UniProtKB/TrEMBL annotation:
UniProt GO molecular function: metalloendopeptidase activity
GO CC terms in record: extracellular matrix; extracellular region
A Pfam family per the record: TSP1_ADAMTS
PROSITE patterns: PLAC (PS50900), TSP1 (PS50092)
Biological processes, Gene Ontology terms: extracellular matrix organization; proteolysis
Species this protein is from: Amphiprion percula (Orange clownfish)
All residue ranges annotated as the PLAC domain in the record: 181-217
Subcellular location: Secreted
Keywords: Repeat, Secreted, Signal
InterPro entries assigned: ADAMTS_ADAMTS-like, PLAC, TSP1_rpt, TSP1_rpt_sf
Protein name stated in the entry: PLAC domain-containing protein
Length: 217
């Protein structure tokens, strides 16, 4: 037979391409010719010169073990002051198609669950009040009110809703200089008559600058 000394010569298997699921191992496969049984010489031939079928890589399946996957930090353990946050994790498994899905945490009971905590705090931070918009007759003051998260010295701004548990949000506006303007009340700009005509006196910025012209409005 022409195949007596034609044979497939194979190399060593490579490492598996996956630790679970369906993986692949590769090796070199060549059609070789040996002139005689006792010959140490071989020549590489075309694949069609060797018997069929050509050796192929093995295919195997092995279930992937579930594993813990960290997701996000939990809410702070306190609504004000200093507390802690813990790192949340879910038990996840990979299927033969490479996709992941969440399974019962009991499936990960033999694997150590990530256990990490960090300090946290939530509180309102208020800036100083701005100068009053009027010297008399009623003006307004404003200030910045922010929700801050994190330990002192390393805090960062967070969404206001995260600080709602700390109590009512401090006001960012208030009335000031409510006493009525007296005889010393005077206009500080020459456009006050125009302000009165255009009925702009109720606006704090004009009421203070045009105190005399706007005194009866």
């Amino acid at each position: 037979s022409k195949y007596c000394f034609h044979r497939w010569e194979t190399g060593e298997w490579s490492s598996c391409s996956a630790t679970c699921g369906v993986g692949l191992m590769t090796r070199t496969v060549a059609c070789a010719h040996q002139p005689s049984r006792n010959s140490n010489h071989t020549a590489v031939l075309k694949d069609e010169d060797c018997p069929k079928p050509k050796p192929s890589p093995p295919c195997g399946k092995q279930d992937c073990l579930p594993q813990w996957v960290t997701t996000d930090w939990s809410q702070c353990s306190v609504t004000c002051g200093n507390g802690i946050q813990s790192l949340q994790a879910i038990c996840r498994k990979q299927g033969e198609n490479g996709r992941y899905w969440t399974v019962d945490p009991k499936n990960c009971s033999l694997i150590s669950k990530p256990d990490r905590v960090r300090p946290c705090s939530l509180k309102w931070r208020v800036d100083a009040w701005s100068p009053c918009s009027a010297t008399c007759g009623g003006g307004t003051q404003t200030r910045s009110v922010r929700c801050m998260k994190g330990p002192h010295g390393r805090s960062r701004q967070a969404e206001n809703r995260q600080c709602l548990g700390t109590g009512r949000r401090p006001s960012n506006t208030r009335m000031c200089n409510l006493l009525p303007c007296t005889r010393w009340c005077r206009d500080s700009t020459r456009y006050c008559e125009k302000v009165r005509q255009l009925e702009l006196c109720p606006l704090p910025q004009f009421k203070s600058r045009c105190c005399y012209s706007c005194r009866n409005t």
